[in-house]
């Protein structure tokens, strides 16, 4: 029933929304995953002169899409869509044929260094190449994604960063805007698909949270996807820090508001950390998959990225302790890296909207 409603909602949107209508292809929206919801909201904000239609991920809808009026373009945006699932490639192939003007904005590319070891995955970048070459513009999440496309000969690829950077604060925060000796933590499950093991990650998180509590720091846990709640509650309980656990699955503004007051942040889920950096909170990204490093490289934070199989609580604690004593400097460094990337996003979005509006 949920799927039927989603399809009918899309058709109703396509028939009633104001022109120009932009079909949004990407992300697992509607699943209470803050990352995917934030991505959709970000693209909607960036392309504010367009009606952004949530395109359901079913190939049989292509026959309907062909006859829906006034959908002139499509955007592949958000998530690690390219080279990840075969279904995404087939959808992109079909939809880019339907819509005469299509483009990529902020999408990531799945990295073979990780996915080649995962059951059922096939490297299809060469098959993606002719699909992407039909795009009017290709803007990807980070340097790793751009290099992967360059390696198979895809040209004119630009790094625009993750779309959620559009939510970054306009100004660098004042020194009095945060609570010293405070840390936000995010952990999640990855269905066994991560560098190292889930057990190792949990054990190190328990140590880290216990370090913070013993030193007198305030500890807040952030859950951004419902399946991550149980592991968060377990780690928080074992470390004696289970008094402040926040579940935020759809409200990007509330998440930013809560995180903004923290001195530091350590997270595993990509957009839990990405949104923290949008609030210019110095953040350690625990790279459970390459997409995490791809984002952090885009904002000059490769050194604050640690693979989960190499995770040591003592090392993380040393980093965040240093940031805590120089918080204003660390926050300002984030601001100066994010600002130009955010400006590129807004500039490209504006240029693309002008083209979309001029389409017949």
What do these coordinates show?
The longest helix is centred in the last third of the chain and has 32 residues, at 327-358. The model has no long low-confidence stretch (mean pLDDT 92). Strand 5 (137-140), helix 7 (143-151) and strand 6 (157-159) form a beta-alpha-beta unit. The two termini are 36 Å apart. The chain folds into two domains: 2-167 and 340-358, Rossmann fold, CATH 3.40.50; 175-337, Rossmann fold, CATH 3.40.50.2000. 46% of the residues lie in helices and 15% in strands. The chain contains 14 helices and twelve strands. The chain is an alpha/beta fold. It has helices spanning 2-16, 34-46, 62-67, 86-98, 112-115, 125-132, 143-151, 198-214, 229-238, 252-260, 270-278, 290-298, 313-325, 327-358; strands at residues 21-25, 51-54, 71-77, 101-107, 137-140, 157-159, 182-185, 218-223, 245-247, 264-267, 283-287, 305-307.
Helix/sheet category: alpha/beta
Low-confidence stretches: none
How would you sum up the global shape?
globular
Order of helices and strands: HEHEHEHEHHEHEEHEHEHEHEHEHH
* Average pLDDT number: 92
* Helical percentage: 40-55%
- What is the second-level CATH architecture of the largest domain? 3-Layer(aba) Sandwich
CATH topology of the largest domain: Rossmann fold
């Amino acid at each position: 029933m949920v799927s039927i409603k989603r399809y009918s909602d899309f058709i109703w949107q396509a028939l009633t929304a104001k022109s120009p209508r932009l079909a949004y292809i990407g992300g697992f929206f509607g699943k209470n995953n803050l990352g995917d919801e934030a991505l959709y909201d970000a693209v909607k904000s960036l392309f504010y002169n367009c009606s952004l239609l949530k395109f359901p991920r079913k190939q049989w809808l292509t026959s309907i899409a062909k006859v829906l009026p006034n959908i002139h373009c499509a955007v592949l945006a958000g998530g690690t869509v390219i080279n990840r699932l075969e279904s995404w490639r087939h959808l992109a192939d079909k939809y880019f044929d339907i819509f005469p003007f299509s483009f990529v904005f902020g999408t990531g590319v799945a990295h073979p260094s990780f996915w080649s070891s995962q059951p059922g995955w096939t490297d299809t970048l060469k098959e993606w190449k002719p699909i992407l070459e039909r795009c009017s513009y290709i803007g990807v999440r980070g340097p790793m994604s751009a290099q992967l496309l360059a390696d198979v000969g895809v040209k004119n690829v630009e790094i625009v960063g993750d779309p959620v950077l559009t939510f970054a604060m306009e100004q660098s925060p004042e020194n009095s805007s945060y609570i010293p000796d405070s840390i936000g933590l995010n952990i999640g499950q990855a269905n066994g698909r991560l560098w190292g093991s889930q057990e190792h990650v949990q054990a190190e998180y328990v140590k880290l949270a216990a370090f913070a509590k013993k030193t007198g720091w305030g500890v807040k846990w952030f859950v951004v996807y419902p399946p991550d709640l149980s592991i968060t509650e377990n780690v928080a309980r074992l470390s004696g820090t289970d008094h402040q656990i926040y579940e935020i699955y759809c409200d990007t503004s509330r998440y930013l508001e809560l995180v903004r007051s923290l001195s530091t942040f350590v997270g595993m889920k990509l957009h839990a950390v990405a949104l923290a950096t949008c609030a210019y909170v110095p953040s350690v990204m625990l790279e459970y998959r390459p997409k995490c490093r791809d984002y952090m490289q885009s904002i000059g934070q490769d050194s604050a990225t640690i693979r989960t199989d190499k995770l040591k609580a003592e090392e993380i604690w040393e980093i965040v302790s240093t940031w805590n004593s120089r918080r204003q400097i660390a926050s300002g460094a984030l601001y100066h890296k994010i600002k130009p990337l955010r400006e590129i996003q807004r500039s490209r979005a504006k240029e693309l909207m002008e083209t979309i509006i001029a389409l017949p």
